[in-house]
């Protein structure tokens, strides 16, 4: 399986560094919350030596309840940072299922946009896993400055939201998660995305005041929070568009009794 890296410069430079400087087990444990443990397929074509490397699926480094971030810092597996990483992974998997249900949708670029979001979520995971409040304590030569996330990704989602909404009738009532398999799955995905957003702010709400002097890290985290917020909005309008495209009516809220 090829890893969906949209920003090769963002992620690969650090993978390359870790492959050269670190033990493979450390590299795997950094992304133990993600299902992408066989990294040889992610190696860019042309690097013959790296292409032959295969990372073992199990490392045993997490058997005592701790795992490593890309910085080398080890934390308990129920740490708030791993909670947000795991929830983002869960969100990505739900989008993958939504894509499988949405192949029949004819709206130009609909599926491609969802797959783009999957790649972006992987990049966000790399950014979060590289976060540190003490750059001077980072082990090895990991260059934190390579892990950035800017406003352009947020603006991209806003453009897509406006594009999708332009094809939909005005919303005058609350709707229930419904509208056929594709739409219902996108509603599930939206709900998981909101949970990922909550987990993100739980993990970093106390960090932002501490790192005010680290402007790049502050802006990066803020942009990720904005992206996750806009993503919930996009998945909502995507669910409505999927219902319309597949000819399945949305179910309106009715006050019980």
From TrEMBL:
Output one GO MF annotation. corrinoid adenosyltransferase activity
Ranges where the Cobalamin adenosyltransferase-like domain occurs: 57-241
Q: Which reaction does this enzyme catalyse, per its entry?
A: cob(I)alamin-[corrinoid adenosyltransferase] + ATP = apo-[corrinoid adenosyltransferase] + adenosylcob(III)alamin + triphosphate
- Gene3D superfamilies registered for this protein in UniProt: Cobalamin adenosyltransferase-like
* Gene Ontology biological process terms from the UniProt entry: cobalamin metabolic process
Keyword Metal-binding among record annotations: no
For this protein, the record's InterPro entries field holds: CblAdoTrfase-like, CblAdoTrfase-like_sf, PduO-typ
Alphabetically ordered keywords of this record:
ATP-binding, Nucleotide-binding, Transferase
Q: Which family does it belong to?
A: Belongs to the Cob(I)alamin adenosyltransferase family.
**Subunit structure, per the record?**
Homotrimer.
Q: What does this protein do?
A: Converts cob(I)alamin to adenosylcobalamin (adenosylcob(III)alamin), a coenzyme for methylmalonyl-CoA mutase, therefore participates in the final step of the vitamin B12 conversion. Generates adenosylcobalamin (AdoCbl) and directly delivers the cofactor to MUT in a transfer that is stimulated by ATP-binding to MMAB and gated by MMAA.
- Provide the protein name: Corrinoid adenosyltransferase MMAB
The record lists the organism as Galdieria yellowstonensis
């Amino acid at each position: 399986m090829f890893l969906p890296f949209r920003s090769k410069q963002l992620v690969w430079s650090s993978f390359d560094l870790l492959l050269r400087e670190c033990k493979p087990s450390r590299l795997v444990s950094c992304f133990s919350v993600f299902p992408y443990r066989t990294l040889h397929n992610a190696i860019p074509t042309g690097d013959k030596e790296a292409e032959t490397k295969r990372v073992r699926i199990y490392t045993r480094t997490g058997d005592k309840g701790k795992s490593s971030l890309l910085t080398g810092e080890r934390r308990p597996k129920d740490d708030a940072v791993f909670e947000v990483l795991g929830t983002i992974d869960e969100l990505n998997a739900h989008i993958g299922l939504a894509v499988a249900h949405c192949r029949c949708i004819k709206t130009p670029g609909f599926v491609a946009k969802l797959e783009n979001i999957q790649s972006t979520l992987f990049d966000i995971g790399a950014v979060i896993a590289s976060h540190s409040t003490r750059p001077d304590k980072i082990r090895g030569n990991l260059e934190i400055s390579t892990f950035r996330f800017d406003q352009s990704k947020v603006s991209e989602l806003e453009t897509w939201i406006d594009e999708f909404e332009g094809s939909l009738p005005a919303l005058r009532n609350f709707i229930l998660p419904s509208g056929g398999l594709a739409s219902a799955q996108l509603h599930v995905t939206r709900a998981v995305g909101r949970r990922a957003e909550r987990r993100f702010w739980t993990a970093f709400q106390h960090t932002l005041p501490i790192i005010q002097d680290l402007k790049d890290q502050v802006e990066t985290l803020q942009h990720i929070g904005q992206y996750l917020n806009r993503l919930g909005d996009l998945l909502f309008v995507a669910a409505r568009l999927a219902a319309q495209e597949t000819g399945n009516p949305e179910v309106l809220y009715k006050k019980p009794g």
